[in-house]
């Protein structure tokens, strides 16, 4: 039987009427037959057809605009020392705990650990649950929330707020996020996009994170709201240590930070005429942010939070702009919605919709599941202004409950403006006027959950246009080509496929997967620069 040629053609949507067109990129896909025509045939043929998607993704990585990824191994000694120091800072006002609690649990995956039942597992496998973030401190906070009986959403909120304090290069209370929540008991999924609804009248993004987190807690949280904010409050008030990840970001953005009064107040050495920045291991405090978090932890109402967030603008902001900014915050009412859902044989994919890249990921998989009469599939090339994913958080329980969240400031350290009154670093994620909610995605995130024959997997990646293809690659590798999880993730694509706007700091691209199977939780990551996991 002759091969059927299919094309996937990406076209650039012009940002304005005056923008010059930049052409299109075409990727040809060759395959023997569609999945629709072969469902009744043997499984081996089915896998061969699906594997053609792997060739598509590899081709994309080579023929489209590439961004080479640095894979340097970070020094681990610093992180272990910093974790101990951060623990001391966190526990100044608490009773002394067992000494073994203060040892780092982030080891090489070849090591083993024992869980509370005495079972021995590799350090990337846990019996009860796991918290995965870009910070050992925040991962531990998430794990402890699970250990204390919190839901995956409770643990995720506490971990995200921790990141908003200690990793301002990737997220803050001024950031945006997209998430998928999966219930292992009901086998159902929901999504929430904390993205601005209205264009910002100022050069700063409208802060929407806190409202989204609070809505998640109202629907899926069990622990008291103030308890979730307590670790972040302690870190902001008592201080945290610059870790290796933040240290690299500071060095890569020295000029930008030095030119920002707010960032320099946090990260520049005082009484230092050279303007030198704090280095790995030095302590940073943000009492204004701590005070803000204390206020919203004990008194959260929409009007109260809107009023506080509106104070984040510079003092010299024009009153008209301030009023419009306040109105944009008030108009933001995040909704919990049904996710984009795709069924392929026994596999069900749940991913984000709206102005994210979830539909692009779904289309990657769906292309191989349809017998299209057309030889081409047109997918919009997202705007150069589309925000990359800066960091991800995945929380899982062995019961099958999962939270997958992708966050962004749009640029490293966002707008660079730290509010003197609230301590919040505002993003430069600007909602552009004239775009409908569905007309042009503005966030490359596609946090995803997959369900297959009782097993559940959470997927996320950092970067821009590489994110949906990286996740599609993991799906093919692990679920269809039967590669082990670690190998599947490490061999996922980590190249940008389309032009992205220049940034001050290019973060290493990384993919992350957490799978719940046989009452155990496993984690795998693509880059040594990505992610710390703490489990039970």
From TrEMBL:
Residues 89-127 are annotated as: Disordered. Residues 106-118 have a biased composition (Basic and acidic residues). Residues 89-98 have a biased composition (Acidic residues). The chain crosses the membrane at residues 46-65. Pfam families: G_glu_transpept. Gene3D superfamilies: 3.60.20.40. It comes from the Eukaryota. Keywords: Membrane, Transmembrane, Transmembrane helix. GO terms for cellular component: extracellular exosome. The keyword DNA-binding does not apply. Belongs to the gamma-glutamyltransferase family. This is Glutathione hydrolase 6.
